[in-house]
Amino acid sequence: VPLMARGRVTSLLLLIWNEQRRNAWLFAAVAAASLAFGAHLIFVGALPALVLFVLSRFRWRPPLRVLAVCALIVAAGVAQYGYVWVRTAQKAGYLEARARSVRELADVMRAKQFESLAFGEPPRVVVSTRIPGVLRAIRAETGWAASVAAVFGAFLLVRRRPAAGALIAGAIAGLALLLAMLGSVAIGAINLPAVALVWVLAACGIDGVREWLASRAPARLATAAA
Predict the structure, then answer these.
(1) Cβ-contact 156, 204 below 8 angstroms
(2) Alpha carbon 130 to its chain's center
(3) Which residue, among 210, 209, 204, 205, has the nearest Cα to 11 in the 3D structure?
(4) Which terminus has fewer CB within 10 Å in the chain: N or C?
(5) Considering only CA atoms, which of 168, 225, 224 is closest in space to residue 194?
(6) Span 71-82, mean pLDDT?
(7) CA-CA distances (angstroms) from residue 150 to 72, 75, 170?
(8) CA 187, CA 46: separation in Å to the nearest integer?
(9) Mean of the per-residue pLDDT values for the chain?
(10) Predicted local confidence at residue 202, as pLDDT
(11) Are 33 and 71 in contact (CB under 8 A)?
């Protein structure tokens, strides 16, 4: 749940920053994304879309001060993995992974213990089998109605607000691709970060239905129906 919420919060904060252009909102978005590192690195699948969104808003030339503050926040987020190092030094009775050196800590961060299960399939299998499998899992989690609403919402958002549409749709696409590349590991609750953002698009689609109904019926009735 924390990971699922942070993906939505990060996107929301970036959209607020895009409207108000106060760097405090950007720093808050970076903090929310960095907190997700401590839950699961699946979130990195959304990072390309998030980073491209921010750079495009700065016309590809972000101020050095902004870059420095963001780098410090990201470093603080990554530092959460120091807990593994500390608990290893304390000889904790139970740890999923142990780290006695910087190299071992890096292995923990990149989930080396699972590398034999992930990223081992050829691109043909990823495209023909894994990506459709991830999409089916997302559809099963959201249901047909929300899935259709999400597709409609993506169309509306990209048409009306291209930057925002690219941010949300790009983040979902990045997460889905990363999950597909994980192979058979990508099942169950690990899909939730992508599912959470699909619901954002579904909300846009449902609001589009409300607008269409409101042009043909009383506004309150249209809202209730949507």
Answers:
(1) yes
(2) 19
(3) 204
(4) N
(5) 168
(6) 91
(7) 35, 34, 14
(8) 18
(9) 85
(10) 94
(11) no
Query: Percent of the chain having pLDDT more than 90?
Result: 41
Q: What is the mean pLDDT of residues 60-89?
A: 92
Average pLDDT over residues 22-45: 86
Q: Which of 19, 14, 1, 4 is nearest to 167 (CA)?
A: 14
pLDDT at 1: 45
- pTM of the complete model: 0.80
Reading the block at residue 166, the tokens are 């690219």
Q: How far apart are CA 87 and CA 17, in angstroms?
A: 38
How far is the C-alpha of 197 from the C-alpha of 4, rounded, in Å?
8
Amino acid letter, 48: P
Q: State in Å, rounded, how far the first CA of the chain is from the last one.
A: 27
| Number of residues that make up the chain | 226
Rounded (to 5) percent helix, strand, coil in the chain: 80, 0, 20
Q: Are 223 and 210 in contact (CB under 8 A)?
A: yes
